[in-house]
Amino acid sequence: MHIDAPRLLRRLDDLAAIGALPEGGVQRLAFSDEDLAGRNWVQYHLEALGLQVRIDEVGNLFGVLYPEGGPIDAGAIMFGSHTDTVGRAGRLDGSLGVVAALEALEVIVTSGWRPARPLVLASFVNEEGVRYMPDMMGSLFHAGDLSLEAVREARDRNGVSVGEEMDRLDYAGKDELTDLGIDTFLELHIEQGPVLETLNRHVGIVTGVQGLSWFEVTVEGASNHAGTTPMDLRRDAGKHAADLAARLRILTDEIEGLRLTIGSMTWYPNLINVIPDRVVFTVDARHPDPATLEDAENRIRSLCTAAHRPEKGLTVAWKPLARVAPCSFASGVVEAVADAIDREGLTGHRMISGAGHDAHILSRCYRAGMIFIPSRGGVSHHPDEYSTDEQIIHGAQVLLRSILSLADYPTSAS
Amino acid sequence: MHIDAPRLLRRLDDLAAIGALPEGGVQRLAFSDEDLAGRNWVQYHLEALGLQVRIDEVGNLFGVLYPEGGPIDAGAIMFGSHTDTVGRAGRLDGSLGVVAALEALEVIVTSGWRPARPLVLASFVNEEGVRYMPDMMGSLFHAGDLSLEAVREARDRNGVSVGEEMDRLDYAGKDELTDLGIDTFLELHIEQGPVLETLNRHVGIVTGVQGLSWFEVTVEGASNHAGTTPMDLRRDAGKHAADLAARLRILTDEIEGLRLTIGSMTWYPNLINVIPDRVVFTVDARHPDPATLEDAENRIRSLCTAAHRPEKGLTVAWKPLARVAPCSFASGVVEAVADAIDREGLTGHRMISGAGHDAHILSRCYRAGMIFIPSRGGVSHHPDEYSTDEQIIHGAQVLLRSILSLADYPTSAS
Predict the structure, then answer these.
(1) Residues in B touching A224 (Cβ below 8 Å)
(2) Helix residue ranges per DSSP H, B112-267
(3) B319 touches chain A (CB under 8 A)
(4) Using alpha carbons only, what angle is made at residue A371 by residues B228 and A392, rounded to the nearest 5 degrees?
(5) Chain A 158-197, residues with CB within 8 Å of chain B CB atoms
(6) What is the pTM of this model?
């Protein structure tokens, strides 16, 4: 079976027209009018295919293709992504995974072949977490890690709750999925990083998602006059923070595969002629191996402790902000993707995902996996986000073939 | 002759009550109601002493004690400071110099002795430059380095001009001082640094003011996802800026006496999980020797040039923000101060001023000098600014004795 490339590309453009910004880019913030319009667009196409549409209590959308003979409780294969976006997004992040899932279902439905298991397209709400925290809200609810109450009570910066928006938009449903016996989730996504482009590979076989640990570090010294304070009498929080940050960055040389980012640093009072008395910075540490991530966290804490020098008038305090454990994807799903790439005659690359995704959350309850396509320059969350038509088509074709394989489509025929 | 210590201390408190903030500290921002009230307080005391008061076109206040026999054009000795303050000041910065000058004049007037030269108390407007730029506005006007028009057209952040405030408050006068033949300016001030306290000396003999050169440095890289971007593919503006800042700080080891401060650093987009694409920081470099300051400036530019690596996707741009040449005070004034300290049986310390002062500006047209007293912890521009009563009294007594010496008071009698 083969995807219909022109239809796939046209639909990506159609979906990107919903919430298109006059200055370029797309905005479909979770639980907004545009977000609902995007979901309705998906629902329309699912219904046009004759699929059953279900909407759960937080607004996650599912389209179900039943096996020949109707519903059975037998290991449904679920696949999809999300259609909400950041404030000024490109057209691919999330949307690609949903539109390609729709394309795969359409190809299968029109082929006349029916698998022995249900196939389920899933589009999860609020993956981005821009308007409402936490991100991956819809998949967290689906996995049982977030209550309906917690979802409804989340508030945006204007104080508007998800519950109020869901009621206003008639956004939520009451459908459940327990009867489907879902056992697999597969997500196609853009890489949002430069690895595939740099290595010149067609498709990424995602073997897991790295774990993440966030810290906030506060360095305090003493604020004094830049002109009148001799160098040896200073307690310069800016210099001390920079020294500590430099030492922390060296951890990436010491721990194989560690990604450590100091993305935010704020100085106080931040005046040209005043020695800073306080600097607050963040540390974002990521690693795919649980034990190694823990080792990195311990070393971060140790380095902060070593830099805490109250006897010199320089103190360092830190606190954890967030932590997500790494996950490894199910070997059966990973190998299905690898095999699909081979059969398509494409070059694959086994890699971990640097970013969190719905598939990461769903790996807690299902066999999960992901497929990546290259992102030009690694750019995402920006209108410059770009993958070539060919890369998009490759990704969708690999998704289709992986679904077929997971759904036991006769190999000789695929 | 000796100052009246209780009167001096009482008057410092009286002046500090004008513009006192409920939460502690004093606010008499230039060209505000409180600023005018402070100036009126000084004027009241000058007139009570029977002195002639003059107010120039920008509101600088002068109190003139004529020689026996009335006005003569013969090398007036001027002394004073300023009574405007920063937003939340202590009671000494500026005010000490004016109140001690008033005290010195009162002691001389009541002694009955008359010098052969005019003695002039000066209180310059807007030394602090907090509400209206530039700082040292009044002395710059007096020195002929700033026009009346430029003063009147300066605007605060609400768009209100100095001219509008001067008209509203009837702040300005029309008096000139050309008839006085001023040739000397002496200013008593708190050190605003920790040197005298650290060395445990009574009084600072200020031999000059260090020059200052300010730069703004902009480092640009590329903003990418902290999770998905491998370490070796990053163009981290935060790391690059930190490396450059660390290298710049080493200049203080390489150039004897250089004070270099990175006081302000701002990251963009400053998000925990995004590699920063832009960092803007400032460099404040100070040295008392003109050639050495120039050498430091050249090395700062060279280090920025060396860090400009467009081939690596990391660029560095810089621009000068401000420059003030160093000044050396007149030896005659410096030695008069040193001699006065000796005669008072106090310990002096020859030092440069780290901060700018009206005396720095006036050194362009007069023989100038300064006297420092210790600042506890080097703190100023803050309600915690503090010098002991004894230190204040020492400073005022040294000012009085220096004025007498410069005004040719018979040495044997002093």
Answers:
(1) 193-194, 378-379
(2) 137-142, 148-153, 162-169, 195-199, 237-249, 251-254
(3) no
(4) 95
(5) 191-195
(6) 0.81
**How many whole angstroms separate alpha carbon A55 and alpha carbon A38?**
14
Do residue B378 and residue A259 have CB atoms under 8 angstroms apart? no
- Is residue A233 classed exposed, middle or buried when 0-12, 13-18 and 19+ CB atoms within 10 A define those classes? middle
Q: Which residue type, as a one-letter code, is found at position A371?
A: I
Residue from A7, A374, A110, A213 nearest B272 by CA = A213
* Range B349-387 burial, b when 16+ CB lie within 10 A, else e: bebbbbbbbbbbbbbeebbbbbbbbbbebbbbbbeebbb
Q: How many CB pairs under 8 A join A and B?
A: 177
Name the residue among A226, A242, A379 with its Cβ closest to that of B246.
Answer: A242
Alpha helices in B49-134 (DSSP H): 95-111
Q: Identify which of A224, A246, A265 has the shortest CB distance to residue B378.
A: A224
Q: Do A227 and B286 touch (CB under 8 A)?
A: yes
Q: What would the two tokens of residue B159 be?
A: 């768009």
Tell which of B228, B376, B382 to mutate to test the A interface (max A CBs under 10 Å).
B228
Who among A225, A263, A270 is closest to B272 (CB)? A263
Tens digits of residue pLDDT in A70-97: 766 679 999 999 999 999 999 999 999 9
Position B69 confidence tier, pLDDT thresholds 50, 70, 90: confident
Average pLDDT over residues A375-391: 94
Q: Which residues contact A40 (CB under 8 A, 6 or more apart)?
A: none
Predicted confidence at residue B410, as pLDDT, reads 87
Q: Which residues of A touch B195 (CB under 8 A)?
A: 228, 230
Domains of chain A: 5-209+326-413 (3.40.630.10), 211-324 (3.30.70.360)
Distances (CA, A) of B143 to A368, B285, B319, B363: 77, 25, 28, 9
Residue A10: CB partners within 8 Å, gap ≥ 6? Answer: none
**Which of A 286-305 lie inside 8 A of B, CB atoms?**
286
User: Residue A90: its chain B contacts at CB < 8 A?
Assistant: none
Q: How far is A371 from chain B (nearest CA, A)?
A: 14
Q: Are B57 and B174 in contact (CB under 8 A)?
A: yes
Confidence of residue B273 (pLDDT cuts 50, 70, 90): confident
Number of H helices, E strands in chain B: 13, 14
